[in-house]
Design goal:
Helices cover 41% and strands 17% of the residues. With 375 residues, it is α/β, with parallel strands linked by helices. The protein is globular. The mean pLDDT is 96.
């Protein structure tokens, strides 16, 4: 089921956008943070827990689901929604990020990418057409074009060739896209090079996708400054009436900075990954519950949070679970961290409505970075 994005307002002091879309009779507001469910599950959490956290769109990973259980099995199950029991929107990435982390430069050709299956070592070959065919069968609501993900260190010469190839791949993918209920997004690349971001955005928009994402900001080696430049260099050339997606970004300050620059949706594995290592977001910065000082701390993770973990459990108890390697500890922290980012986005949306987002950002930074994050 396709949904249409509606831009409601632009905040008067920034490029921040308030928008919405309807899906299965329910309205979802943007800006939005999207939890990542790589293998058709957000690690340790049930669909009911995700809804309780007020999640909207969630992600699944084309590469991983291609390998296990395979797109045909998911197709036979009735598509990804039925397979994983999720009746809200799903976005599938193209598999490009994973593929390029496994491939060597010499294995990238105009046709596609050769690489080895990370599970059993088999040789695989992924093309733009194959990526789209897999996503068509997964039956996600938003599919992503197959793009090259060059490292931040790439030279201007290499990045230019890569951008041109990504544009050709985007057209090839769009030409074979055959799921009428599925939106297809194009991806803007170009590193921190202003001319390449402009070129990539303009040429990708010419292909007329249902939405646009800014890629290449969550690879190894990008600085925050490069990330913000990539957004600033791309946004002016993206249409106002379509969703704008910043891929792989989940640090609270980056969500704020992205929204201020005109981004609508974000995703990242960060909240659940941090949780598995005992870390929690709080209004006063990240904390590490493995630290000894929480041994007899019988307060909530964050006393301003309304999540299940904060309403029912203490830091001392969750510290015990993490130290004892009990998975319930990771579950509780995952619930909290995802709710924290979604609640942050709710506050951001309210600030856009009230035209005081910059004041909200200043207050958030003051509280969050008042003390350095615990290691």
């Amino acid at each position: 089921m396709k949904f249409t994005y509606n831009l409601k307002k632009v905040e008067k002091n920034s490029k921040a956008r308030l928008g919405s879309f309807e899906y299965n009779g329910k309205t979802f507001e943007t800006p939005m943070f999207m939890p990542v469910g790589t293998q058709a599950t957000v690690k340790t959490l049930s669909p009911e827990e995700l809804k309780e956290a007020n999640s909207g769109i969630i992600l699944a990973n084309t590469y991983h689901l291609w390998l296990r259980p395979g797109e045909d099995i998911i197709d036979h199950a009735g598509g990804l929604h039925k397979f994983m029991n999720w009746d809200q929107p799903i976005l599938t990435d193209s598999g490009g990020f994973q593929v390029f982390s496994l491939a060597k430069p010499k294995d990238i050709s105009e046709e596609g990418v050769k690489f080895k299956n990370h599970i059993n070592g088999d040789s695989l070959f992924l093309t733009p057409e194959k990526s789209i065919a897999i996503q068509n069968k997964l039956d996600s609501d938003i599919a992503m074009s197959f793009d090259e993900c060059p490292p931040a260190s790439a030279t201007h010469e290499y990045m230019k060739k890569s951008v041109e190839r990504t544009i050709r791949w985007a057209k090839r993918g769009k030409d074979v896209h055959s799921n009428p209920n599925q939106m297809l997004f194009g991806i803007v690349q170009g590193g921190a090079y202003q001319d390449l971001r402009e070129y990539s955005a303009k040429e990708t928009v010419k292909l007329d996708f249902d939405g646009y994402s800014i890629g290449g900001v969550a690879n190894d080696g990008e600085s925050k400054d490069d990330m913000y430049k990539a957004i600033d260099y791309s946004i002016p050339y993206l249409p106002e009436n379509k969703l704008r997606y910043l891929m792989g970004v989940g640090e609270p300050i980056d969500l704020l900075e992205g929204v201020i620059r005109g981004i609508d949706i974000f995703d990242c594995v960060l909240p659940t990954r941090l949780a598995r290592h005992g870390h929690a977001f709080t209004k006063n910065g990240k904390i590490n519950l493995k630290n000894a000082k929480y041994k007899e701390d019988f307060t909530a993770i964050d006393n301003t949070c309304d999540c299940y973990a904060c309403k029912h459990y203490t830091k001392a108890y969750i510290k015990h679970l993490i130290n004892a390697e009990e998975t319930f500890g990771a579950r509780l922290l995952s619930i909290h961290n995802i709710r924290f980012l979604i609640k942050l986005m709710e506050s951001i949306r309210e600030s856009i409505k009230n035209d005081n987002l910059l004041e909200f950002k200043a207050e958030f930074i003051k509280n969050y970075y008042g003390e350095k994050d615990e290691k």
